[in-house]
Write a structure and sequence with these properties.
41 residues; mainly beta
């Protein structure tokens, strides 16, 4: 899971995407996010 620092979009990908699919920000603006476990808070 990657999160865009520019627009806040969450992108699900195994490897770091080349750019944000939502706003087109460069890949250095994408930060690794821990994957949320569904059903647990």
């Amino acid at each position: 899971m990657w999160k865009c620092a520019e627009c806040g979009a969450a992108l699900e990908a195994r490897c770091k995407p080349g750019k944000c699919k939502n706003c087109g920000a460069a890949k250095d603006k994408l930060n690794k996010e821990p994957k949320e476990i569904k059903g647990k808070k």
